[in-house]
Amino acid sequence: MEEKNTPVAVAAPVKKIRKQKVVQRLLKGKGQAHIKSSYNNTIISITDQNGSLIAWSSAGKCGFKSAKKATPYAAGIVVKDALEKSKDSGIKEVDVFIKGIGPAREGAIRALAANGLQIASIKDVTPVPHNGCRPKKPRRV
């Protein structure tokens, strides 16, 4: 009996993709809220005490366009959206870090307090140059 050599199709091994689970270690329900407010947008990040991201949201992501992204009303909606995503993490108290200048700074802090979070501290971390780079020349209109 003769055996015929027939080609056998061998499939390439499939790589298994493992999703990494973020282990959130919250110390007594305490976290951080980072608010970046500019003239064009408002971005809010909720992190644990180590700085590991739990949830984030921005005004552009919530559906606001153009100049409406920098309003205090948009900041309130952004805070609600970020807290909705982070509600299963168990955060009850936050340290607030604000960066930038914009009209939504106070609106975001008020929205954090109105949505049931205790505000432990508020710190302004806006970068200020100590006579570093020369600023752009003023615009002439």
Automatic annotation (TrEMBL):
Pfam families: Ribosomal_S11. One of its GO terms (biological process) is translation. Signal peptide: none annotated. Gene3D superfamilies: Ribosomal protein S11. The keyword Phosphoprotein does not apply. GO terms for cellular component: ribonucleoprotein complex; ribosome. The keyword rRNA-binding applies. GO terms for molecular function: rRNA binding; structural constituent of ribosome. Keywords: Ribonucleoprotein, Ribosomal protein, RNA-binding, rRNA-binding. Part of the 30S ribosomal subunit. Interacts with proteins S7 and S18. Binds to IF-3. PANTHER family: 40S RIBOSOMAL PROTEIN S14/30S RIBOSOMAL PROTEIN S11. Belongs to the universal ribosomal protein uS11 family. NCBIfam families: PRK05309.1, uS11_bact. Located on the platform of the 30S subunit, it bridges several disparate RNA helices of the 16S rRNA. Forms part of the Shine-Dalgarno cleft in the 70S ribosome. This is Small ribosomal subunit protein uS11. It comes from Candidatus Kuenenbacteria bacterium GW2011_GWA2_42_15. The gene is rpsK.
